[in-house]
User: Fold this.
Amino acid sequence: MLSKSGRAAVMACAAVGLLTVAPGVAHADANYVQTWIKMDSMGSQLHIRSSYVDERGAVGFRDSYYRAGIGGASVHHTFSEAN
Assistant:
């Protein structure tokens, strides 16, 4: 059985652990994805914009452009970061 000071120490460690882990858990579900599609007789285009957080904690966006048509297909990616 833990004494009062032992229980307080355990609770303090649990609180610090919770405060350390909670932002990461909240961040795990924070994302943004938007999709645009265009199709006609000349071909099709798909544009996907998604957000990400890099290893420094900076927020960025990735734009991916996919095109397919009579002349062939192409893929282009653009990365941008917020300051």
